[in-house]
Amino acid sequence: MINIIGLIFISIGLTFDVLGCLGLVRLPDVYCRLQAATKCVTLGTCSILFGTFLIVGFTAAGIKSLLCIIFVILTAPVAAHAIARGAHRAGVKLWKDSIVDKYAEDKEGEA
Amino acid sequence: MKVFRWFIGMIFLVGIVILIVIRPLPFLFYPDLPYIGFLGRVLYIIILACILCLYRVWRGPTGADRIVAVDILGILIVGLCAVLTISTGRSWYIDIGIAWALQSFICALALSKYLEGKGFDD
Q1: Domain count of the fold of chain A
Q2: For residue A45, what pLDDT is reported?
Q3: Which residues from B are below 8 Å from A42, CB to CB?
């Protein structure tokens, strides 16, 4: 029974992974791609790791997968924020239909 | 030329879908473990997602797109290592996953500093 629940968690995570990568291919802008891919793939990978923990149980591999969940949740948003900030400071243009850019207004206020 | 690129991409996608539908390769897995058919198909679907990321690395219009795709590829491979832990029964694959997450995070931070145009020391 616990194995079936673990396989259901792995299926949910797999769906999020594939949809996130589809957004990475199809969306028009680097910021849209970052938004779609980072959130979906982080949640999907954490779900796959939790399913692994449910199937393997309280062994060494299960505890390591829990540690890996904590690590991925802590580090993936930090990396995404750093990449978005670097891209905006490097002058990557927004998509032509974007209507608001708060970070540019903040930079004008500082200068 | 554009038709040629579409043709190459369709060959890759159809090949991966055929690999998902038929049973997994017999020399990669231990056939007496439970749920081995489902987990083999899970591995092929994660490899399909990795190929989508590699398309964005190949055709990124700017450097930031390539950096985003490399970061996402690192997180996907952590999930791949977790599925390999179940499907082969070897517990050291999850160690590879932890180490890969660590180096992917540091790699993303260093590449974003490079993108920002500063040196690595501030």
Answers
A1: 1
A2: 94
A3: 75
Q: B53: distance to nearest CA of chain A, Å?
A: 6
Instruction: For tokens 């599925």, name the residue.
Output: B83
With an 8 Å Cβ cutoff, are B82 and A68 in contact? yes
pLDDT of residue B25: 59
CA atoms within 13 A on the CB side of A80: 23
Please check whether residue A30 is in contact with residue A54, taking contact to mean a CB–CB distance below 8 angstroms: no
What is the distance between the alpha carbons of residues B11 and B17, in angstroms, rounded to a whole number?
10
User: pTM above 0.90?
Assistant: no
Q: Identify which of A14, A24, A76 has the shortest CB distance to residue B52.
A: A24
Residue B14, helix vs strand vs coil? helix
Q: Is A15 on the interface with B (CB under 8 A)?
A: no
What's the angle, vertex CA B84, arms to CA B80 and CA B89, rounded to 5? 160
d(CA B43, CA B83): 7
Closest CA to B95 of B74, B73, B78: B78
ipTM for the complex shown: 0.88
Q: Which residue has the tokens 């590699």?
A: B54
Q: Sort out which chain B residues have CB atoms less than 8 A from A18's CB and list them.
A: 45, 48-49
Find the domain containing A44 and state its range.
2-110
HEC per residue, A46-87: HHHHHHHHHHHCCCHHHHHHHHHHHHHHHHHHHHHHHHHHHH
